[in-house]
Automatic annotation (TrEMBL):
GO terms for biological process: proteolysis. It comes from Acidianus hospitalis (strain W1). GO terms for molecular function: peptidase activity. This is Trypsin-like serine protease. SUPFAM superfamilies: Metalloproteases ('zincins'), catalytic domain, PDZ domain-like.
Length: 492
């Protein structure tokens, strides 16, 4: 198919050329496990609607698509900047045919994409490759050279030397690949990044200073998940695909991002240990006792990507749990004179599509590391397992607590079976009075005045000993050396 795109403010006008028949608009974007219903942005289309995202069309048809999302997984069109993540804008017919896009832009605009240039068009051999190649354009676009193969495409500024070091360290692990583009933009939102085979798109807020682990994470994905692929992760652009391996695809990638950034000298050791401490502290919550890493990966569509105020009671992030497991694996491998890098090298050179059994076979067979129970059992066990090698101190354990997290004066989280839970407090309750005091003091039998749904209530809450959520970590080896880090989490 060919798409001729005419951007205008807030919309893309598109003339699509294909065959008469059914076209399918993706409902989500690979790598981001939530049904976004991107097809909701179609405001006009020459065709007969068959379902929410399928249309019967003639060989040529026009459509108009609304585009003002700042999200790097979607698309935006303004009078001086466009960004397109293709699944958010373009439908497909056959996956295995060529897809090309032609952009109708003023001559002073610059275009950046990892699609192949073909005359006046940018093309991919099939829809998977096309959907995996964002397009960015603006008269203000700068293409900053990192080295011969890597560039940053941005309308802002970025520390290219930091990226040069990250790329150089990451490339040492699984080798060099084709050309690569980091699409980078500052925004009024903190949106993070998304990985592609030969690029990544990263959008962060203006006040975010530390970017190393985010860039290292997205860059390491060009191998882990893009070229080293979970066997059960089979693309389907219309409905959920289930994998139980996101703890490896995402959590291990997050761990590698920390290690690569440390080796590259672009991440402070103290910040690195704090990063680990923040992940480990999540394993102290009820959700980690109830859920396994495999389960949390499976439920990403309804839990991780649709996190509500009860997430810490109901699930565990496979990023946090996966990072903790990766640390365990790295520590165990280091006892045998190897590093986690060797696991990646072995699995990558043995087979590009892997299952849990493949990982377990290598870890068990070569290194006597058995992770089956840590992946399929309660995720909280990983923390127990780490205690032999990592110094973990619970700095709030035993202190009187209610079991709530506050955002300003509003309850953001209630821990299951905590005194706050037993006293009847729920998330969203706004605390307006603390036993006649101006500040909340955690002590037994406090009478709280709260507002719930506009009604004022008084609730007496007792305390119990804090089970321990805030943790101080000292790993004492690997790249972390002797630095200590304390998790940020505040639960009272
Ligand atoms: Zn990721």
């Amino acid at each position: 198919m060919i798409f001729e795109v005419k951007p205008r403010n807030r919309y893309f006008e598109i003339l699509a050329k294909g065959r008469e028949g059914v076209v399918i608009f993706p409902t989500y974007v690979p790598g981001s496990y939530v049904i976004r219903e991107l097809e909701r942005n179609i405001v006009e289309i020459e065709g007969i609607r068959i379902s929410k995202n399928r249309f019967y069309v003639k060989d040529n048809f026009r459509y108009l698509i609304y585009a003002v999302s700042k999200d790097q997984r979607e698309a935006i069109s303004t009078l001086d900047y466009i960004f397109i993540n293709p699944p958010a804008v373009f439908p497909f017919q056959e996956i295995n045919e060529e897809y090309c896009v032609k952009l109708d832009l003023p001559p002073n605009w610059k275009i950046s994409t990892s699609l192949k240039k073909k005359n006046e068009m940018y093309c991919a051999d099939n829809y998977d490759e096309f959907a995996d190649s964002p397009i960015e354009a603006s008269p203000y676009l700068k293409v900053l050279k990192i080295d011969d193969k890597h560039v940053v495409s941005t309308i802002d500024d970025l520390d290219v030397e930091m990226l040069r070091r990250i790329v150089s360290e990451a490339d040492k692990i699984l080798g060099d690949e084709d050309n690569y583009v980091f699409h980078f933009r500052r925004s009024d939102k903190e949106l993070g990044g998304i990985e592609h085979s030969n690029s990544s798109a990263i959008v962060v807020s203006w006040d975010r200073e530390k970017l190393a682990t985010l860039f290292a994470h997205e860059y390491f994905h060009r191998w882990n998940v893009k070229r080293l692929i979970p066997a059960d992760l089979k693309h389907n652009y219309e409905k959920e695909v289930y994998t139980s391996l996101l703890w490896f695809a995402e959590g291990f990638t997050d761990y590698m991002a920390v290690i690569i950034s440390l080796r590259a000298g672009v991440l402070d050791k103290k910040d690195a240990v704090k990063y680990v401490a923040n992940s480990l502290s999540k394993l102290t919550f009820p959700g980690a006792k109830r859920t396994s890493l495999a389960e949390s990966s499976f439920t990403t569509w309804i839990k991780y990507y649709r996190q509500d105020e009860n997430f810490l009671n109901s699930s565990i992030s496979y990023y946090d749990g996966g990072l903790a497991l990766a640390l365990y694996v790295d520590l165990e491998m280091s006892k045998k004179g190897k590093r986690i890098d060797d696991l990646f090298k072995e699995i990558y050179h043995e087979k590009r599509i892997y299952s849990f059994d493949d990982l377990n076979r290598i870890l068990k067979g070569k290194y006597e590391i058995d992770i089956e129970d840590l992946v399929y059992g309660s995720a909280a066990k990983i923390l127990e397992q780490l205690k032999d090698d990592v110094n973990i101190e619970f700095t709030d354990r035993g202190k009187p607590y209610y079991g709530i997290m506050l955002k300003d004066k509003t309850i953001a989280y209630v821990e299951d079976n905590s005194p706050a839970d037993l006293a009847g407090l729920i998330p969203g309750d706004q605390i307006i009075g603390f036993n006649g005091k101006s500040k909340l003091e955690v002590k037994d039998s406090t009478k709280l005045t709260i507002v719930r749904e506009g009604r004022i209530k008084e609730v007496v809450v007792n305390t119990s000993p804090n089970p321990g959520h805030k943790i101080k970590v000292k790993i004492g080896k690997l790249e972390f050396e002797k630095e200590e880090g304390i998790s940020d989490i505040e639960i009272i």
